[in-house]
Amino acid sequence: MPDTIRVLVVEDSPTMRQLICFALRRIKVLEVVEADDGVDGLKKLSSDRFDMIITDINMPVMDGLKLVSMVRNDDTYKDVPIIIITTEGAAEDRQRALSLGANAYITKPIQAPQVINCVKELLGI
Amino acid sequence: MTDSDNSNSSGKPIEGKDFLQVFKRGVQFTEELLQENERLRVRLVRLEEENRALVKNKVKYDSYRELMEQIHSLDEERSHLLERFKAVEVENRDYQERYKEIEEENNRLANLYIASYQLHSTLDLPEVVRITFEIIINLVGALDFCLYFREGNKLAPIRSEGHKRSELPEITVGKGTAGRVAQDKSLYVSGDDLTRSSVQDPKVCIPLVLEDNLFGMINIFRFLAHKPCITELDRELFNLLGQHAATALYSARLRTDIGGKTHDALSIAHMLDTQLPG
Q1: Closest Cβ opposite residue A19 in set B106, B111, B140
Q2: N or C: which end of chain A has fewer CB within 10 A?
Q3: What residues of B are in contact with residue A111 (Cβ under 8 Å)?
Q4: pLDDT tens-digit series, residues B140-177
């Protein structure tokens, strides 16, 4: 297991970003970086290396599904685990996100243990 | 040979015949002794074998007794270990239950802390309204709701989600579900189907109260389709909004009014329309 696992959290709501980061702090090996929206997320992905991406769907400028689609077309990140955290609870929304390449789909309102378990399972820690 | 050598015990002379008899008796006696010796030797061998067999049996019996004692001791140890194991299982279950409770409590406190932190992080009214709405959408899971400010005996819609503000009527204090909540200044939570939306019959009415004065109200008309029910954490968030959102909104509104220009509900609504997206 590496010393540090870098996670990018892409979420336009500061409240949700704070809640997700609070949950991720429970996993000691994680280093969390935040992004405001899809474009900010892509910028950070191109300038740094990340081992996991957690993203909302409904964001201004670039939504989460577009972000997932672009990330999966990038050789550097085609296998990186991606978790979607969203208010969209319909089965077709989930299916669409998973077909675009997301590995997990969590609906809001979230519970910290749910996020922690999902992250640990996908990272194998 | 003297004369005394040739006489027997009574003094008579020993004849050759007598000597032969004595010799024969001696031989016979010796043979009998040898036979007896052989018999005794055989008996001795048999007795030695018997003795060895008895010693072996004694050893077997001792080993058997030792084994039985060991088994008994192991049985006792096993019973003791089983009891201990059961006690540890019970203790483990208690710890698991306790861990689960602590995790839930931790999650609850995190939600409340973050909501409170965000609400009081700014005095900019549009920003406070945005944060309030974020809390209602992301932490509570509501879909359609509206923020009202009090204007005299009415509550005017300031900002809404899921409905156009113009479609939402004013609330008269004391009239209808929301009006009665405004009068009582206490939280209202309906037991109805959460996914059914009705502006006239809100699912939740959160009075925004400061020092026992009604400042405004948040009405939730519908929740996210996948939200099964209103939880204890939701109720705590409603109470938090009723106090902390009230304080944050009131302070932000005061700040907006600084400079002598007061804003009524309609002007605030227009200001929010221009400054917030959607």
Answers
A1: B111
A2: N
A3: 107
A4: 999 999 999 999 999 999 999 999 999 999 999 999 99
Give the domain range for residue B264. 125-275
For residue A107, list its beta bridge partners.
A86
pTM: 0.77
Please tell me the distance in Å from A11's CA to the nearest CA on chain B. Answer: 11
pLDDT tens for B238-255 read 999 999 999 999 999 988
Last residue of a domain, one of B119, B140, B158: B119
The interface pTM score, or ipTM, of the predicted complex is: 0.91
Residue found under tokens 């109200």? B217
Establish if B31 belongs to a structural domain.
Answer: yes
> All domains of chain A, ordered by start, with CATH?
5-123 (3.40.50.2300)
Q: Give the span between the Cα atoms of A57 and A120, in whole angstroms.
A: 22
Residues with Cβ within 8 Å of B108's Cβ and at least 6 positions away in sequence, in order, are B232, B233, B236
- Location of structure tokens 């965000």: B118
